[in-house]
Design goal:
heterodimer, A: alpha+beta, BirA Bifunctional Protein, domain 2, 9-stranded mixed sheet, 3-stranded antiparallel sheet, 12 strands, 44% helix, globular, B: alpha/beta, D-Maltodextrin-Binding Protein, domain 2, 2 domains, 5-stranded mixed sheet, 8 helices, 33% strand, elongated, EC 2.4.2.17 (chain B), glycosyltransferase (chain B), ATP phosphoribosyltransferase activity (chain B), ATP_PRibTrfase_HisG (chain B), transferase (chain B)
Chain lengths: 362, 230
């Protein structure tokens, strides 16, 4: 195993490479506001991050990643375009797998630039790829933006679309919502009985708690309206399912996705962006023809990514986590930006895993 | 050395545990004054009684400071991640039945199950500016259950007692708590979600996998298992 000083030395070298590429060094604090992270990720973050507290500042978290504090920092100070790098420990609570590290070093590169998102995507991917060029790793990529465009384009109510959008990152829930909206599941007895009523429904039980009768009446109205919405057509559902299953090298993936766009025309713009990215990557010398594209990539673990997503994985070492991961997170800048937003893309490397792979190769 | 058996130090749980062992030929008793937590075991040699709070039993088992212990499934699973690695279930004791459930106000007529809850949580956050609060002391179990179910936009708030009252006091919108008859829930105008059963719990005898067992302890354990099986 590589020792701490080797890992630190490698981290510094990578960081200097990123500085040479034009990034400004930032050093976010280890303790982060728990509230920000909880609002962003929900209660699940507690299973992944260490929480501590004091009487003055309340709950704090040991940073589970750098992206959130880097975005917060950028949104406070507005000079743009901007490129940032950082190197330091992140902390991940482990409750199920004792072999997974609960503390490790990440080195990152983040680009905030509105000029040309496709070029910025390619820049980040190429820079990460360059750092890993001598290692036995293979990249994979995807694009969450195509999924969201597909959902937005479904011929159904806004309420149903936003329910699906909310669960893009929870594939199982997404699937069960989709089944329900396609009319594949039967309506529960409770719901049927509820829908047979009219007007404001007052229960005999007393009104307690902060969710008021008005909230319930509003949902009742929404449920009645939803019951009248026609199921999403078989055609659209099967197009969406075909889309989710696409897993091919880029040229074939693009071909299949264009086929899907016949039934889901709203993904066309997202596919144009994919095309532009492919051109920009090719211009940077990336072997795009052999690059694996998975439409569902990044749906289970990368909650703030909403466009291009990618990772690098060790060949023959499926036991290791990704050596590098990255992606586009425009929506996160909007969320943390208090009314401002900027297209942003970034990635992180794991120097500890890089050293481990090098040792294994010798 | 001797085998250390941890048993809840007071109340009905202690009495029923004593009864359960008595039926199997082992007499557990407290010694000394009422306030002194000391005890003894008759009917077998080499077993030492340790009286402690039921909520401390999981930790003591995991640390290997006791070899055997009686506590509820709820407490054990909440406190010990990867519990199978640390303890073994020896016998369910057939009392102390309780369900860990999710409950919402009865007047939420539009909410029957987890699907509804998820939809309501999303709406609640938009309308009220904070995530829907669930009062509980079973943070880990509830979080894992809701995570598996794909429920989002909720928030756990800690409640170590009188959890059913938190909704009326508006410190939470709903609760996750232990119930045996549902009486307290009904009295507080709460109802259980149709698919909101997180865990069925009962008092259980556990064996620590981490404690040290000398040769004589192993013999005692075998003898004890025979008694308990008969």
């Amino acid at each position: 195993m590589a020792n701490t000083s080797d890992i630190q030395a490698r981290a510094q070298r990578l960081r200097m490479n990123f500085e040479a590429a034009g990034a400004k060094l930032v050093e976010p604090p280890i303790l982060q506001s728990a509230e920000t992270l909880l609002d962003l990720y929900g209660e699940d973050i507690r299973a992944r991050a260490y929480v501590t507290s004091d009487a003055l500042r309340g709950e704090q978290m040991l940073r589970p990643d750098f992206t959130v504090p880097v975005v917060e920092r950028h949104m406070r100070q507005s000079a743009e375009p901007a490129r940032y790098t950082y190197a330091g420990e992140v902390f991940r609570r482990q409750e199920h797998d004792p072999d997974r590290a609960n503390e490790y070093v990440q080195v990152g590169y983040e680009v905030f630039d509105r000029a040309n998102p496709a070029a910025a995507d390619a820049e980040v991917f190429a820079l990460i790829s360059m750092q890993l060029r001598d290692l036995p790793v293979r990249p994979a990529c995807g694009d969450i933006g195509i999924l969201t465009a597909a959902v937005q384009g479904l011929n159904t109510s806004d309420l149903r679309k936003s329910a699906l959008m909310r669960h893009i990152w929870r594939p199982r829930r997404f699937k069960s919502l989709l089944d329900r909206f396609a009319g594949r599941t039967t309506v529960s007895e409770h719901r049927e009985k509820l829908l047979s009523t009219e007007g404001a429904v007052s229960a005999s039980a007393p009104e307690i708690g902060k969710r008021r009768a008005a909230d319930i009446d509003a949902r009742m109205e929404a449920l009645r309206a939803d019951a009248k919405v026609a199921p999403i057509s078989e055609n659209e559902i099967s197009a969406l399912e075909t889309l989710l299953a696409v897993r091919e090298t880029i040229p074939f993936a693009v071909e299949q996705l264009r086929d899907v766009a016949v039934d889901l025309p709203t993904i066309s713009h997202a596919l144009d962006r994919l095309d532009a990215r492919v051109v920009a990557m090719r211009a940077r010398g990336i072997d795009v023809d052999n690059l694996e594209f998975e439409a569902s990539y990044g749906r289970t673990s990368m909650e703030y990514y909403d466009g291009f997503v990618f990772g690098f994985y060790a060949n023959n070492r499926p036991d290791l986590p990704a050596i590098a991961t990255g992606g586009r997170y425009d929506a996160l800048t909007r969320y943390l930006g208090n009314g401002r937003e900027i297209p942003a893309v970034g990635a992180v490397l794991r120097p500890d895993l890089m050293l481990q792979l090098e040792e294994g190769a010798q | 050395m001797s085998l250390k058996l941890g048993v809840p130090s007071k109340g009905r749980l202690m009495d029923k545990t004593f009864d359960w062992f008595a039926k199997r030929g082992l007499t557990l008793s407290r010694t000394g004054s009422e306030r002194e937590y000391a005890g003894r075991v008759d009917g077998i040699d080499g077993v030492e009684l340790v009286l402690l709070s039921a909520s401390e039993v999981p930790r003591e088992l995991a640390a290997g400071r006791i070899h055997l212990g009686v506590t509820g499934t709820d407490l054990l699973l909440e406190k010990l991640p990867r519990w199978e690695q640390q303890v073994e279930e020896v016998a369910p004791l057939g009392f102390g039945f309780a369900d860990l459930i999710l409950a919402v106000p009865q007047f939420w007529i539009d909410v029957d199950g987890l699907d509804d809850l998820d939809a309501v949580a999303a709406r609640f956050r938009v309308d009220h500016g904070h995530r829907l609060r669930i009062a509980t002391k079973y943070h880990r179990l509830v979080r894992e259950f809701l995570g598996d179910a794909g429920v989002a936009d909720y928030q756990l708030v800690d409640s170590q007692g009188a959890t059913e009252g938190t909704v009326k006091n508006e410190t939470a919108e709903m609760i996750a708590d232990i119930t045996s008859t549902g009486e307290t829930l009904r009295a507080n105008h709460l109802k259980i979600l149709s698919d909101g059963l997180v865990l069925k719990s009962q008092a259980t005898l556990w064996r620590s996998r981490t404690a040290k067992y000398e040769a004589e302890d192993k013999a005692t354990l075998n003898q004890l298992r025979d008694l308990l099986d008969s």
